[in-house]
Amino acid sequence: MTLNRRHFLTTSAGLVAATGLGGLGISPAFAQAAAPTYKPEEGASLRLLRWVPFVPGEEAAWLANTKKFTDATGVAVRIDKESWEDVRPKAAVAANIGSGPDMVMSWFDDPQQYPDKLLDLTELGEYLGGAHGGWYPGLEGYAKRDGKFIALPLCAIGNAIVYRDSHMKAAGFNEFPKDTAGFLELCKALQAKGTPAGFPHGKAVGDGNNYAHWLLWSHGGKMVDEAGNVVLNSPETLASVKYAQELYKTFIPGTESWQDVNNNRAFLAGQVSLTANGVSVYYAAIKDPSMKEIAEDMRSVNLPIGPVGESVELHQASTLSVFKHTKYPEAAKAYLQFMYQADNMNSWIEGASAYCCQPLKAFADNPVWTSNPIHAAYAKASGSLRPNGYAGPLGTASAATMADYVLVDMYATAVTGQMSPEDAIAQAERRAQRYYRV
């Protein structure tokens, strides 16, 4: 089908058919609701700030869809890439000074730090949810404030353990342990064999936060209760810190300074036999002939279940926001609407090779999830995601506590011996209370 401006700017029942909504149990009235129409302003151009991709195919698919949008509308879209760690401060500066990129592809509940600086996307968010089977609740929570969409959920970047199967077996384990007690024993055995594990205790936006929150939640701890009261200083949190100390003893030296690139680099260099990462580490291995042995030996599995008795994981969550300072709000909303069309979203998900888990339920049957066994641990990230603000409401406090690495630092100071577990928890509690104060 050839795209042109007239086709793009008119609502189309054909989009409904393209998503296969009839087989998803969506009510016909909801599925056939007319799409909102956004007419780009005369002479509009846009600028998107996004994170540096870890999977080249993901970026290629995003750029291809962007080109299709430009061809259809005449609206040029400039895409600026920044490291994962740099997107957050650059987006915050743009929001506060009212200048810079029109849109941002950001992390977790970052939009909650400056909701008054963002364009209301409720009309588009509600339409997309109705047209594509609904948003996954965990992701949707990151994008809404007071019942309104201040952003659009983009994806969950699945986090799972990757390990060397032969090294696990050489350490005396035929199967990967399903619980935290068995996992610690595996890590001890790997260290004894000279093939240690490694998880980041540094200020890693994704992997550091994912690991720290899993440590806390798997033992039944939480930062705040349902009312937003800080309840971090608990026996459950103490148990999680002491467990982290024992795990840390089995790690390769230096993990307290690791950022998001370090754990996969260490794994691919053969320095560690086990870590947690997105599926990107697998694709980096299979593309390098010198890593053939590692790629064939690599397996993935979800993180072990702790004393809490259920799988509780934080996955990297990304959203798309539009700043109020944009000169071209209609063009920006048209761009977002275009990128979420079924054919475009599916091509992006497939291009990402299981790295980006879909934000809308209608795209759960994308063939990428069953195309390779290593994808299985990542396939349900959007559905299993627990928001970082658990168990309280998402908002400015949860976003600031995450951005300040309160939980990450708590574990880092304890495992490295800078503080006792009790003192590390008490310090983290005080830091969190500054953000959650009434």
What can you tell me about this protein's structure?
Pfam families: SBP_bac_8. This protein has about 450 residues and is of the alpha+beta class. It folds into two domains: about 220 residues, Periplasmic binding protein-like II (D-Maltodextrin-Binding Protein, domain 2, 3-Layer(aba) Sandwich); about 190 residues, D-Maltodextrin-Binding Protein, domain 2, CATH 3.40.190.10. It has 20 helices and eleven strands. The chain has a six-stranded mixed β-sheet. Helix 4 links the parallel strand 1 and strand 2. Helix 4 runs antiparallel to helix 16, helix 11 crosses helix 19 and helix 18 crosses helix 20. The longest helix has 18 residues. The protein starts with a helix and ends with a helix.
Provide a quick synopsis of the model:
With 438 residues, the chain is an alpha+beta fold. The chain is 43% helix and 12% strand.
Keywords:
alpha+beta; three-stranded antiparallel β-sheet; D-Maltodextrin-Binding Protein, domain 2; 438 residues; six-stranded mixed β-sheet; disordered N terminus; single chain
Note the topology.
Elements lengths: L4 H5 L3 H6 L9 H4 L13 E7 L4 H18 L2 E7 L1 H14 L5 E5 L14 H10 L5 H7 E2 L2 E2 L2 E6 L2 E5 H6 L9 H13 L14 H12 L16 H14 L13 H7 L5 E4 L2 H7 L5 H6 E4 L14 E7 L6 H11 L2 H10 L4 E2 L23 H4 L11 H8 L2 H10 L5 H16 L2
Parallel strand pairs: 1-2, 1-3
Antiparallel strand pairs: 3-10, 4-5, 6-10, 6-11, 7-8, 7-9
Helix pairs in contact: 4-16, 10-11, 11-19, 18-20, 19-20
